[in-house]
Amino acid sequence: MNIKEIIDKEPIGQEIEIKGWVRTFRSNRFIALNDGSTVKNLQVVVDFENESEDTLKRITTGACLKIEGVVVESQGNGQTIELNSKMIEILGDSDPEEYPLQPKKHSMEFLREIAHLRPRTQTFGAIFRLRHALQFAVHKYFNDNGFFMVHTPIVTGSDAEGAGEMFRVSMLDPANPPKNEDGSINWKEDFFGKETNLTVSGQLEAELFALGLGKVYTFGPTFRAENSNTTRHLAEFWMIEPEVAFNDLFDNMDLAEDCLKYVIRYVIEQCGDDLNFLHERQLQEEKGLPEDKRSMPLLEKLKFVSENEFVRCSYTEAIDILRNSKPNKKKKFQYIIEEWGADLQSEHERYLVEKHFGKPVILYDYPASIKAFYMRLNEDGKTVRAMDILFPGIGEIVGGSQREERYDILKQKVADFGIEEESLWWYLETRKFGTCVHSGFGLGFERLINFVTGMTNIRDVIPFPRTPKNAEF
Ligand code: ATP
Ligand code: MN
Questions:
Q1: Residues 149 and 80 reside in one and the same domain
Q2: Which of the listed residues 233, 240, 252, 398 should we mutate to test ligand 1's pocket, taking the one with most ligand atoms within 8 A of CB?
Q3: In a domain, 11, yes or no
Q4: For all residues of the chain together, what is the average pLDDT?
Q5: Against a cut of 0.70, is the pTM above it?
Q6: Ligand showing the shortest atom-to-Cα distance for residue 343
């Protein structure tokens, strides 16, 4: 049995063996032991007359122990059962002086510097059990709804995905690459015989499969080499990308909203202990703040989002709202909204969600000029069937669209965007054979976890974050 099972089943009177790490050891008598199966610790009452001086000295925060004992009803407060130890074995040496995770409050910044040890803290235990549950819920949602998962490639030969700067994949000797006559690098001699990169999105390949299997999704790592040092961007992150034949933009919104609500409900039902812990943690963190600076308590926020309809608002309406907003008129925004056509910055998205609507918002029908080439052109000739879902505290969590399915228009868009047609011949060709309306979106997995855990920095919800100048662990 692990600690979760022991706490759930309360096998009073049973003799058990348990292994785990010491969180705290008080009064030479009480060990708080954790094995990662739950946020809760098992209280072990040490039979100190039975243990050697040496053993007692080596029971320190961070030490790894094997304990045999009997489960009994707890004499103290704070737990219903505890373990009376009969035999304690120290499994690994631990230097209490040097162990960086002392039982006190550590800053998230400090914990990022010891990312090899942070999985042993209560907070990161809770975050990563939730991360697991969320990915399971995502797969369950799509499987239960008749989707097929497609593993789209991580190394891509197309540089036209259009979502951002890419990381090059090359085996050429950087000090002495083969050259063409004009002095440029001869990529034909590289491993794949052409320039290749790490993918920024599995969408284009997912589309090919949607046009054969109907309802598909990808859930894999994606890479962006943008130098954006924000709390919302990683250079390596995981993205969920469903793609559905015959769905139009509004079906696409329904799917995204339903999926988000499902996975949030799933963790509310399955991960109560971890969510309660993070809820309490957030209340503690924000205790000192004035009331209007505090965020909605975590459990309330999750319930609110999973039970309320998302607002749907066109880009054009949003621009009107923003133009007439207080922060715009008082020049409080860093980027003042003047004209239709302006790209929305995170400050505008957050104003709409947090101040104006007070709910998640689906913005749609954006100007063609600020969106990717593959989005379906509307009848007005100037907007495309794009949609972004904006969440409180997060900003954009989903970006998606109805795809341009008309061959001539898509071919023209490719040319207008300055993309070489040859690099996308296979994508264009799907529009020649049995083309149809279809739609999809990308949901950033870490932004979802940030929302569900109430963390404020995306570096704290991925095991080992990759960001500019940082790939230590
Ligand atoms: P943003 O404007 O926030 O930089 P984007 O518009 O570039 O995002 P998309 O290309 O639409 O992002 O990607 C789809 C989703 O992937 C986003 O809605 C977001 O949830 C997530 N995402 C995008 N870039 C990153 C990143 N660098 N790190 C983590 N998640 C990301
Ligand atoms: Mn986007």
A1: no
A2: 233
A3: yes
A4: 95
A5: yes
A6: 1
